[in-house]
Amino acid sequence: MSTPSTRLPEGRYGRSSDERADRTLKVVGAVLGALLLALVGWFGYHYVAQNEISGELIGFEAGDDAVKVHLEVRKDAGTSGYCTVRSQAENGAEVGRADFRFDTDDTRIDRVVTLRTTSRGTTAELVGCHAD
To answer: What is the β-pairing status of strands 81-88 and 94-102?
Structure first.
């Protein structure tokens, strides 16, 4: 005697709902993955290619009413821009903030700038650099 089969005859009733759900999830996952990859690529390109000026704070020297800040700025030739520097007091309050312009055609600028403060600054922070 033969044993009865519990499987449905192939092709007779179409696909099962589990197979359709699996296929739908795979398609949705692939589309979302492609969108995420495109978004990461766009942000990466924008950060690398569009950033025409960047700076680095090398060191600083604090005084009673000013902070001398040593900045190194790298930029494209012919690009002008500015870097924002700030200083904080020992209690964390901001005591000075200023923008310093860089308009020369040099691609690398190494300069010491003076940031005036309202009281003794204990830190110096490069907030960011921006092209005009």
So the answer is: antiparallel
Which class in CATH covers the domain with range 53-131?
mainly beta
Closest to 125 (Cα-Cα) out of 80, 71, 82? 71
Quick one: how many helices (H) and strands (E) in the chain?
A: 1, 6
Q: What is the pTM assigned to this prediction?
A: 0.60
Per domain, the residue ranges of the chain are 11-50, 53-131
CA-to-CA distance for 61 and 68, rounded, in angstroms?
5
Structure tokens at 74: 């790298």
Comparing CA positions, the residue from 47, 60, 45, 73 lying closest to residue 129 is 73
Element (H, E) at 71: strand 66-75
Q: Give the three-state DSSP class for 99.
A: strand
Query: Which uninterrupted H or E stretch holds 45?
Result: helix 17-49
Q: Give 60's pLDDT tier (boundaries 50, 70, 90).
A: very high
* Mean pLDDT to the nearest integer, 102-126: 89
